[in-house]
């Protein structure tokens, strides 16, 4: 089963209140967007990554030399398939990355990304949609989500049979653990919300390619307010699977989140090095033989 990825990165980061979009802020010399794309690029199951950029983006080319932003008239072929889709979207290739232009809203940017991939993707392929500003997502968590579409490596299967229940897809999410309050007048508590069955939606979110594409079109035409891709599928009467993820899969929204993300990435690196050292020690002592 072929999996594509769409990364909406056309936002201007107004809540961050900084001079450049938050996806281009740096952590240890690398932009948040670069760190996010590195995580997705490490996954062999993902064929191509469509990065959806603001048409006025002046930062992409600076941080990704040789991977020029798409223009409205030029396209580049991928595996013999023309990437240009018309309609002012544009499509360019840079290694595993492609770019296209986004819209005014997230749903429009995601739909533009899907439209730009439509000539390359089959209707029953899968698409992974991930926030540009979630650079700390763990590979293991993404693999848990991809298991909805991709069979385990040791299963002997080359594809996973898609059933009726699979068409809803799934998303990484976290059970709500904090006590939730609904605000009333003048910022006072109106009531405590029952959190028993509440989950906080994260990304990536994974859905059948053409199902998501058509559902986004239909929901937008109906005037539905869409906050993520799962909300579009819910509107269509489907019930995406909730796949638990680690709490460190944070979304960088405010200035203080940048410092937290740096600490998380450092901790993940130390954890990875420790695990690698343990494997080497076990192999040396014959435990893994």
TrEMBL record:
Site entry: Positions MEP for the nucleophilic attack: 195, 251
Record keywords, A-Z: Isoprene biosynthesis, Nucleotidyltransferase, Transferase
UniProt xrefs under Pfam families: IspD (PF01128)
An example molecular function term from Gene Ontology annotations: 2-C-methyl-D-erythritol 4-phosphate cytidylyltransferase activity
Listed pathway(s): Isoprenoid biosynthesis; isopentenyl diphosphate biosynthesis via DXP pathway; isopentenyl diphosphate from 1-deoxy-D-xylulose 5-phosphate: step 2/6
E.C. number: 2.7.7.60
Catalytic activity: 2-C-methyl-D-erythritol 4-phosphate + CTP + H(+) = 4-CDP-2-C-methyl-D-erythritol + diphosphate
Domain of life: Bacteria
Entry-linked InterPro entries: IspD, IspD/TarI, IspD/TarI_cytidylyltransf_bact, ISPD_synthase_CS, Nucleotide-diphossugar_trans
Signal sequence extent: none
Marked site (Transition state stabilizer) residue numbers: 15, 22
One GO BP: isopentenyl diphosphate biosynthetic process, methylerythritol 4-phosphate pathway
UniProt family annotation: Belongs to the IspD/TarI cytidylyltransferase family. IspD subfamily.
Biological function: Catalyzes the formation of 4-diphosphocytidyl-2-C-methyl-D-erythritol from CTP and 2-C-methyl-D-erythritol 4-phosphate (MEP).
NCBIfam families per UniProt: ispD
Protein's name according to its UniProt entry: 2-C-methyl-D-erythritol 4-phosphate cytidylyltransferase
Recorded name of the encoding gene: ispD
């Amino acid at each position: 089963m072929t999996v594509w990825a769409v990364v909406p990165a056309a936002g201007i980061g107004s809540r961050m209140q900084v001079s450049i979009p938050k996806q281009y802020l740096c952590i240890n010399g690398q932009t948040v967007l670069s760190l996010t794309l590195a995580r997705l690029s490490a996954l062999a199951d993902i064929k191509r990554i469509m990065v959806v950029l603001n048409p006025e983006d002046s930062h992409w080319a600076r941080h990704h030399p040789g991977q020029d932003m798409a223009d409205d008239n030029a396209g580049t072929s991928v595996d013999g398939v023309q990437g240009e889709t018309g309609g002012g979207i544009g499509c360019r290739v840079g290694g595993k990355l492609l770019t296209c232009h986004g819209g005014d809203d997230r749903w429009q940017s995601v739909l533009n990304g899907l439209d730009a991939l439509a000539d390359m993707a089959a209707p029953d392929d899968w698409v992974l949609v991930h926030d540009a500003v979630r650079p700390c997502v763990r590979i293991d968590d993404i693999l848990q989500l991809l298991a909805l579409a991709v069979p385990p490596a040791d299963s002997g299967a080359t594809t996973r049979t898609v059933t009726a229940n699979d068409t809803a897809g799934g998303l990484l999410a976290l059970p709500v653990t904090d006590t939730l309050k609904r605000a009333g007048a003048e910022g006072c508590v109106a009531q405590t919300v029952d959190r028993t069955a509440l989950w906080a939606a994260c990304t990536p979110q994974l859905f059948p390619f053409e199902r998501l594409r058509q559902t986004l079109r239909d929901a937008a035409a109906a005037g539905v307010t869409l906050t993520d891709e799962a909300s579009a599928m819910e509107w269509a009467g489907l019930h995406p699977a909730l796949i638990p993820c680690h709490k460190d899969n944070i979304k960088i929204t405010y200035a203080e989140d940048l410092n937290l993300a740096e600490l998380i990435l450092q901790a993940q690196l130390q954890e990875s090095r420790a695990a690698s050292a343990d494997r080497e020690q076990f192999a040396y002592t014959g435990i893994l033989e």
